[in-house]
Amino acid sequence: MRIRELAERLQVSPRAIRFYEESGLIAPKRDDASGYRLFSEEDAWRLQTIVALREMGMSVKQMRAVLDEIDHGSTDKVTDYLEWQRQSLYAQWLEIADIIEQLESAVMRYRAEGVLHQNDLVRAVKGIRGMRQARENWEDRWHFDDLASKFDEQVAQVSNSLAIYYD
Predict the structure, then answer these.
(1) CATH value of 3-71 in 1.10.3720.10, 1.10.1660.10, 2.60.120.260, 1.20.210.10
(2) pLDDT tens across the length of the chain (167 residues)
(3) Burial zone of 64 (CB within 10 Å; 0-12 exposed, 13-18 middle, 19+ buried)
(4) Which of 6, 58, 85, 153 allows an S-S link to 53, with CB 3.0 to 4.6 Å?
(5) What does the domain layout of the chain look like in residue ranges?
(6) Rg of the chain taking only CA atoms, in angstroms
């Protein structure tokens, strides 16, 4: 199929498809006579994956790494990339929630008093920066991350040996 057909099918612009091609994420064949790009079903699947990864907030560099791992069949590494992206989005979500909370406090006080206090703005900025700094500097002092992965392994081993009996 040609670029316009693929663009309509996946609801993405032909310009975006060309960008992904220029970035090396997709490499369609070309018709020798016309020079048109010809996309296969495999190309369509790959482009759909690219669009999904982009919607998840991944950069071209990150998408390339994920696609390389998919191409090599490295399901564990693909899962790791998706987990990292989820953690990144969750951190951004928490930061936005903090900002919303600070804004709500300032709005409530402004509505009650009719004056925007400099203290509220300073407190909001300090609160937002403090929460951001706390998340960025967080350390796993008790090694919960290591313990969690070991616990998951132990549960998997035990659950395989347990049987459930019904009356």
Answers:
(1) 1.10.1660.10
(2) 999 999 999 999 999 999 999 999 999 999 999 989 999 999 999 999 999 999 888 899 999 999 999 999 888 888 888 888 888 888 888 888 888 888 888 888 889 988 877 877 787 777 777 777 776 776 655 565 666 666 667 766 766 666 566 66
(3) middle
(4) 58
(5) 3-71, 76-140
(6) 24
